[in-house]
């Protein structure tokens, strides 16, 4: 109703302005500050600039490190020639799998009847929990608290009840709709964090707490104490390529999977469990993904497992690619968070203590929710030093699809709370928020509340550079004038700093492998454990290998990520893909360089191809594996208190100017400036693309 009135008033302003301009009405009939209320937003002409560190002038021309190299597959992707999972040509005898999904949020399955679907010509099979043993049906990325198919009870709308396999996609989806599922509804149905708190619906082993200093004493001595809360909702991943998998049986006891996943080794492991084959009989391949953002780290199992089971049982190739509505229905989102905090500070706004409670909405299964919560707990203070901290975390069990990894993995939700706190403090003491930020910033040498020393902490330089680059104070003055002169349109400016820890929260995942094969013609095939999701990982790995071997990047090729080339890989996630895999690639290249050293010394004027030919005829191995394990990490408050939680931190500061239409709520970002410290970039073009893409 308010919007209808606002739009009516907007049209009144637009008509009045035209009448004033044409002289029908007096120019003074409408106050000047009211006139801009008639305006609509138009997409402005885009103007942008990117600044980055240039390489040294004496760097070798064939050394690509630090240079803004074009994404290795950019042209193929732009022309549509790049092959994704569902672009793999149809095979002889191939079948299509369609999922039967729950229509209730919490219910007991009383009847499951697929007879009508199976009666259709071309429908080959129907699979459900009854086709697997209890052990085979229990899966999950960590806790095995999920099922391939719902086992008697459904816990969310969109949970997989069964799967139809038919001759083609249209038939399979039509048949899936004919499967009759009857339910007996169960109570309670828990959707929100508040409902979970009311019903004490938490996963076990929580709450957990992290404490530093004496919070009680600090509150007693604080000049001000403020209590508040903030919340952040979910977010849909919306990768361009939905979940997809193709499974092909090889011989009688081998399976080959082509899967849109960030974690091929996890798919291999879970398929091995479900079809009861050892992992050495299962190969999972991923050439490239059409985006992932964390949504394909663990949730790929929802498509890959039914497809693999059907292919193994029917001995025919089986394919499934979710439609967009199916993908959004059955996969989870970013974790919604509710954060309650109590903060103590002095008259200047210097924070001395904080007690904070973090609740995340995990959905119906654990998935990676405990790690997401932990990272939120470790990032809530953002860039601000708080000497006395008590942070608690709860993982809430609800009847939603299981929420999962999403770019930032809990850190944005945590930092969101820190920024709320700093603004509350600034408001209460009556100071500019930028002054309160600077007063509380960490300095090099400070310790976090999880006992990690900040060895280099350049946030102040990022802050000052961003203020200068964005003309912050100049824009602030312009905004004050604009807001005074316009009643129905308002502008605002905001600055946000960030601190993000680089490492997997789970110790054993911080490892990577690589395989480098040099062929007799001098060309190099590189395999590593990371997955190309569009983020440019393969491009960076090519650059690392080119520098390490001292050859042009054009001689090196990466075909795909596959579990038969590099085993036991970690997910490509947590912003450590290039750190881990790059070091493994270097390790493999160093082994090869060592073997080639005597030949290079014997033929100092030789070319790369001549050295390789000589090595081949001298029977020197031209294949090497590489491995890397991130050192000095694995913090645990009692078992390993001196280790670091994160290998290092990346820092950034962003400033945005936004205009809103007070009548309609419509808004537009007018300008943004971002300064990121990511060390010496391997590829500034790729890294700027990642920063702009994230923004």
Automatic annotation (TrEMBL):
Which Pfam family is one of this chain's hits? MoCoBD_1
- Cofactor(s) named in the record: FAD; Mo-molybdopterin; [2Fe-2S] cluster
Q: What is the lineage of its organism?
A: Eukaryota, Metazoa, Ecdysozoa, Arthropoda, Hexapoda
What keywords does the record list, in alphabetical order? 2Fe-2S, FAD, Flavoprotein, Iron, Iron-sulfur, Metal-binding, Molybdenum, Oxidoreductase
Which family is this protein grouped under? Belongs to the xanthine dehydrogenase family.
One example of the protein's molecular function in GO is: oxidoreductase activity
Q: Where is the Aldehyde oxidase/xanthine dehydrogenase a/b hammerhead domain?
A: 79-187
Show the Gene3D superfamilies listed in the entry.
Aldehyde oxidase/xanthine dehydrogenase, a/b hammerhead (3.90.1170.50), Aldehyde oxidase/xanthine dehydrogenase, molybdopterin binding domain (3.30.365.10)
**Xref: PROSITE patterns:** MOLYBDOPTERIN_EUK
The gene name reads Xdh
Is the keyword ATP-binding assigned to this protein?
A: no
In terms of InterPro entries, this protein maps to:
Ald_Oxase/Xan_DH_a/b, Ald_Oxase/Xan_DH_a/b_sf, Ald_Oxase/xanthine_DH-like, AldOxase/xan_DH_MoCoBD1, AldOxase/xan_DH_MoCoBD2, AldOxase/xan_DH_Mopterin-bd_sf, OxRdtase_Mopterin_BS
**Descriptive protein name:** Xanthine dehydrogenase
């Amino acid at each position: 109703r308010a919007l209808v009135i606002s739009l009516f008033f907007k049209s009144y302003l637009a008509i009045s302005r035209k009448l004033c301009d044409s002289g029908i009405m007096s120019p003074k009939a409408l106050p000047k500050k009211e006139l801009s209320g008639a305006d609509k937003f138009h997409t402005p002409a885009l103007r942008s600039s990117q600044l980055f560190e240039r390489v040294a002038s004496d760097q070798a021309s064939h050394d690509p490190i630090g240079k803004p190299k074009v994404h290795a597959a950019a042209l193929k992707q732009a022309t549509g020639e790049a092959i994704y999972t569902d672009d793999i040509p149809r095979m002889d005898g191939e079948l299509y799998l369609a999922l039967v999904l729950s229509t209730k949020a919490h219910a007991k399955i009383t009847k499951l009847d697929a007879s009508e679907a199976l009666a259709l010509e071309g429908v080959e099979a129907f699979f459900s929990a009854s086709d697997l043993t209890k052990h085979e049906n229990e899966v999950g990325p960590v806790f095995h608290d999920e099922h391939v198919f719902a086992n008697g009870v459904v816990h969310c709308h969109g949970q997989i009840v069964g799967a139809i396999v038919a001759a083609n996609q249209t038939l399979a989806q039509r048949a899936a709709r004919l499967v009759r599922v009857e339910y007996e509804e169960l109570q309670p149905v828990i959707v929100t964090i508040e409902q979970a708190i009311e019903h004490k619906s938490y996963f076990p082993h929580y709450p957990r707490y992290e404490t530093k200093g004496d919070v009680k004493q600090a509150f007693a001595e604080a000049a001000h104490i403020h209590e508040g809360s903030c919340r952040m909702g979910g977010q849909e991943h919306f990768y361009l390529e939905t979940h997809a998998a193709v499974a092909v049986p090889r011989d009688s006891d081998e399976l080959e999977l082509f899967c849109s996943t960030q974690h091929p080794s996890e798919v291999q492991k879970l398929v091995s469990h479900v079809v009861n084959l050892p992992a050495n009989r299962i190969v999972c391949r991923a050439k490239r993904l059409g985006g992932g953002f964390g949504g394909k780290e663990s949730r790929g199992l929802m498509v890959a497992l039914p497809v693999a089971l059907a292919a193994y049982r029917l001995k025919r190739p089986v394919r499934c690619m979710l439609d967009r509505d199916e993908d959004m229905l059955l996969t989870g989102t970013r974790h919604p968070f509710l954060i309650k905090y109590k903060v103590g500070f002095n008259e200047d706004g210097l924070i001395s203590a904080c007690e904070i409670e973090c609740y995340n909405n995990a959905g119906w299964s654990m998935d990676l929710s405990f790690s997401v919560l932990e990272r939120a707990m470790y990032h809530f203070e953002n860039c601000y030093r708080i000497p006395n901290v008590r942070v608690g975390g709860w993982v809430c069990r609800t009847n939603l699809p299981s929420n999962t990894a999403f770019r930032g993995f809990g850190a944005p939700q945590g930092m969101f709370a820190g920024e709320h706190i700093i603004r509350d403090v600034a408001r209460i003491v009556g100071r500019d928020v930028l002054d309160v930020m600077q007063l509380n910033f960490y300095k090099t040498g400070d310790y976090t509340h999880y006992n990690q020393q900040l060895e280099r902490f350049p946030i102040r330089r990022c802050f000052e550079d961003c203020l200068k680059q964005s003309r912050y104070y100049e824009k602030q003055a312009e905004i004050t004038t604009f807001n005074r002169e316009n009643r129905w349109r308002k502008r605002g400016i905001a600055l946000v700093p960030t601190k993000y820890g680089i490492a997997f929260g789970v110790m054993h995942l911080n490892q990577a492998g690589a395989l480098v094969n040099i062929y007799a013609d001098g060309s190099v095939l590189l395999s590593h454990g990371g997955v190309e999701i569009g983020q440019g990982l393969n491009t960076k790995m090519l650059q690392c290998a080119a520098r390490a071997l001292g050859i042009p990047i054009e001689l090196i090729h990466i075909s795909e990520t596959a579990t038969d080339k590099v085993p036991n890989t970690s997910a490509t996630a947590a912003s450590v893909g290039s750190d881990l895999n790059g070091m493994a690639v270097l390790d493999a290249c160093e082994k090869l360089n060592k073997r080639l050293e005597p030949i290079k010394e014997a033929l100092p004027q030789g070319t790369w191809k001549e050295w390789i030919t000589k090595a081949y005829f001298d029977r020197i191995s031209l294949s090497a594996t590489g491995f890397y394990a991130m050192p000095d990490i694995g913090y645990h408050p009692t078992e390993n208190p001196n280790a670091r939680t994160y290998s290092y931190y990346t820092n950034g500061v962003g400033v945005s100017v936004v205009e809103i239409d007070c009548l309609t709520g419509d808004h537009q970002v007018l300008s943004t400036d971002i300064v990121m410290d990511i060390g010496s970039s391997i590829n500034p073009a790729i890294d700027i693309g990642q920063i702009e893409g994230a923004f």
